[in-house]
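Pipeline run #58 for the internal structure catalog. This entry was flagged by the ingest filter as a single-chain record with no existing model, so it goes straight to prediction. Upstream metadata was stripped on purpose; only the residue string is passed forward. Reviewer on rotation: M.T. Logging verbosity set to normal.
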Amino acid sequence: MSKDRTILITGAGSGFGEGTAIGLAKQGYSVIAGVHISPQVTALRNKASALGLQDKLRVEKLDILDACDVNIALTWDIDILFNNAGYGESGPLFEIPVDLLKKNFETNVFAPLALTQKVVAKFIREKKQGKVIFTSSMGGIVAPVGLAPYCVTKFALEGVAEALHNELKPFGIQVQTVNPGGYLTGFNERMGETALRWLDDNKNFTSRNTFLRQLDLLIGNDSGRLDPQEMIDAMIRIVPAGDGKYRNVVPKFIEDFLKDHQARTWEEII
């Protein structure tokens, strides 16, 4: 795909988003890195300057829940939207306060959809064959005990992406997902801590120790602490590409696990 196209990345203040923004800029793409809070603007601008990327990597505040930020972003001339912003709530789904789950859906599903609707409407009006990518997760396909609140938001995002993939084909607009496995960016560790805000051994059926043991089984091992550079490299390849797979699970052993999991659900006994 032409390097003249401009790529907007949300959630680019840390982790996959930041690494992908820097990597794409290094390859010569014009990148707008949307970050959540103002201190991240200064930090990433300084990094871009130190790397000599200030002409390719533009850093702007873009809180996808802030209508003013979104309206400003809609004035930018972009060709690719990479919906990467998100966060996670953890804990037992049958006990989590629903208000927390609603907040997680707002950030992970409704806000990216609202931004995408506005961006693709602009693409269509301008007869631009743009592209939209969503950061989903292996948790968009499997919902393990302990991380299910976050996972169900990604299940919903999978439905959003699949619908848009089919709806936007007639307009020449491409849609993809990237589905990371358990990479050590700090995201999963921060997500794990969220349940400790409300889990109470005097109130909840799930004890804090039980939850922490479940969490350790998921992310306290080598398969839950993979080198994030592998995923960043994949994103750098996938995001600007003019063709490729609709769903992109990395690493391969997680893709194999998810396919096996989906097959086994057809035989699952209650």
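catalog note: The beta strands are 6-9, 30-35, 57-61, 80-83, 131-135, 174-180, 247-250.
catalog note: The chain has one domain: 6-261.
status: ready for reviewer M.T.
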